[in-house]
Amino acid sequence: MADFTPIRITSRANPRITDAAKLHEKKHRNRTQRFFFEGHKLFSEARDARIPIECVIVEEQAYEKYRPLFEDADFEILLVPPSVYEKVTDEQAPQGIFCIAKFPDNLKFSHTISITGSHLGDIIETKAPKYLICDGLRDPGNLGTVIRTANALGFDRLLLSADCADVCSPKTVRAAMGALFRLPITIAEDIPASIAELRNAGFDVRAAALTDAAQPLGTYRVTDKTVFVIGNEGHGLAEETVAACDGAVIIPMAPGAESLNAAIAASILMWERTRI
Predict the structure, then answer these.
(1) Edge-to-edge strands of the sheet including 34-38?
(2) Which residues pair with 79 in a beta bridge?
(3) I want to staple 133 with a disulfide (CB 3.0 to 4.6 A). Which of 55, 77, 226, 229 is the partner?
(4) φ, ψ for residue 35 (rounded to 5)?
(5) Contact 111/187 with Cβ under 8 angstroms?
(6) What is the residue range of 167's domain?
(7) One domain, residues 229 and 250
(8) Rounded to the nearest 5 degrees, what angle is found at the Cα of 97, between the Cα atoms of 186 and 146?
(9) How many other CB atoms are found less than 10 A from the CB of residue 26?
(10) In the prediction, which pLDDT does 169 show?
(11) pLDDT under 70 in the chain at which residues?
């Protein structure tokens, strides 16, 4: 069995520290197939979810404070002074636990799988699965909030377009509050084609879009086959995405209100799907 006795690092120029700091860059995350998350709560949730942690960089005082969390560690522990920990974190009030994990197959999301064609049958887990599609959701905070809400409301999967915010962005991971470790997520290469496949499988796919024929939420009858589609924060959904759907819905708002935050709109639609 490997020896995971804490390794002490005191130099900010240590290759392990400079490598960890680079994980703030998307291209480095994708190139190395690793991402990071911070804090004792996410660390505990990742271990409970059996996320394959590669190593944890721990500030000395944090190690003493949270020592029980590191019992039976099956990953490397790099023990560092505050000056070194400052190099890897961008948190305003860091808790001193910086976790590096791999992108494994069982992390429940994929950067390569499309749900079109033969893949569609692979993702339908239940008789009446709850799905939400996000097309062009660019803000990582919004995406993380959608992930957190979908998990809380018992959704089975999120389908994301390739141009959505990075699932492994630190802001996305932080906003998701551990839900990222539990909710299956699929990156769809072609959203209109994916919508077509879902419709062919019997789903009723509805765009959240202001169109002439859009039905106000409350008059549209939500069923266990309804899948809603949320678009970009500023521009909404592309015409080809709306055209691929069975129809459109709008969330009624008070006179003078211009729009809802994308994550809030997604939450309302997910609740409507959940409460049937």
Answers:
(1) 7-8, 76-80, 53-59, 97-102, 34-38
(2) 8, 58
(3) 229
(4) -145, 175
(5) yes
(6) 108-274
(7) yes
(8) 30
(9) 12
(10) 94
(11) 1-3, 104-127
Euclidean distance between CA atoms 170 and 173, whole angstroms: 5
- The model carries a pTM of 0.91
User: CB neighbours of 268 closer than 8 A, spacing ≥ 6?
Assistant: 217, 251, 260
What is the chain's length?
276
Q: Which residues neighbour 31 within 8 Å (Cβ) at sequence distance 6 or greater?
A: none
83 & 114 share domain: no
pLDDT at residue 103, rounded to an integer: 83
Specify the CATH number for the domain of residue 225: 3.40.1280.10
Structure tokens at 42: 């996410």
Long-range Cβ contact pairs of 10-15 (< 8 A, separation 24 or more): 10/80, 10/81, 10/84, 11/84, 12/83, 12/84, 12/87, 14/84
Residues 116 and 250 in one domain: yes
Amino acid 106: pLDDT: 43
DSSP string, 31-95: HHTEEEEESHHHHHHHHHTT--EEEEEEEHHHHHHTGGGGTT--SEEEEE-HHHHHHH---SS--
As a whole number of angstroms, the distance between CA 162 and CA 149 comes to 21
